[in-house]
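Q: Got a minute? One more chain.
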Amino acid sequence: MLTKGSGLLAASCLFILLATMNSAGYRYGASDQAFYIPAILRHLEPADFPRDRALIDSQARLTTIDELAAGVVRVTGVSLPHLFLALYLLTLATLLTGAVRIGARLFRTPWTVVAIGAALTLRHAIAKTGANTLEGYFHPRQLAFALGLVAVAAFLERRDRLAIGLVIGAAALHPTTALWFAIWLGVACWFARPEWRTAMAAVVAVVTAAGTVLLLRGPLAGHLGRMDAAWLAVIADRDYLFPIAWPLNVWFTNLISIPVLIACWHARRRAQLTVARETPLVIGALALAVLFFCWLPLNAIHIALAVEMQVTRVFWMLDILATIYAVGWICHAAGRATNGAQRAAAVACVLIAISLARGTYSCFVQFPDRPIFAVDIQHADWRDAMAWARTTDPESGWLADPVHAAKYGSSLRAAGHRDVLLEQLKDRAIAMYDRDVAMWVADRERALGALAWDTPDGARALARRFALDYLVIDRELELPLIHRSGSLFIYRIR
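A: Always. Here it is, folded:
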């Protein structure tokens, strides 16, 4: 017979499996790790990335996750791929913990909590925000969000100091995600703990003063000005940065969480089902929507800090609270159903079946060659080529397809630990944090537009201009071949 502990472990494993399958499997080195891995490597191997240091540091200086991860690697000796896998599993376990505790506080039956957990495995994008509810790789933003969700649960449980500590911990991982939770719970505490209002006002004053110093003399200095046309041109394709241009369907998709949240809360209140601190929590969540609309004009005139803050991601917080409420409402029909436990069990089973079917399709039909958990880079030829790249001089410069990260599943910086002329997908995204970096990216894009990087003459011309040493490409060229990894050829171009 299963004990309570073993049952919880089994439920956690099922949640992690379904969440991973719905993310089309776990991958190392994917997507935003094109930034995070090099930032960590900069601390582990100071000689790495002498050319791309300004690009990497433009965002890394705003976070501490790179220092923290590098410290763990130094102390424990664990490899970065295994550390990231452990952090990924921790993220999902923490997310489930927050959801379970919130669900248990708000609703009556264990099956409702199971249904909420199942609903959260159904990965989806928060439309035009650059964020997804789940990622198939470790992202500090996801762990910060999970800690914030546990903080929400702690608030409902009247464990305010724990909630504060969790938000501070989230800030060390991803400052803006933690900021939205701080505002959410700060407003909620304002209404739930009136005796704290004087102290809270003092804290806000101190934080405002510290923020002013950061904006005037700290790492955010100069970010109150407007982005000029040249800077905007580099990040113009990042449509998630500019909500004023959203089509109507995106506005509807993101804003629908607000009426869902209000309707479900009102139904619970009318049925006298609300619990202590629930109403302040809803008010705090709605304050995030107010924040978004107050911020929108600053984003519309392209104030740099307003663009960089990506306040659109508050819809992620609204989305998860609306999801929890909607699942609870379906399970209990706002408290009017007489067979609430049976109804909740049926809803939970349906959601688990949907998640399993969707995850199976993603893993075995859409991506049949991708393992559910891939601890290392999966493109064998790229992995071997990058292993060779790591044996070269750290000061060497590399040339590759500008979209090589999407093509091979990991960037040259993350996999090969070497500087590359351009990794277009992420370099453009990072360019929003610094105008000089944006001009650096623009210069390389112009050069690649004028010179064919995948021809001998073009590669040599780019090598002369940018002091590049090697070209990695998936076809034979009339250049000095120095290494081959299956379908990939590495040529010396200088």
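A: Residues 350 and 428 are 41 Å apart (CA to CA).
Q: Perfect, thanks.
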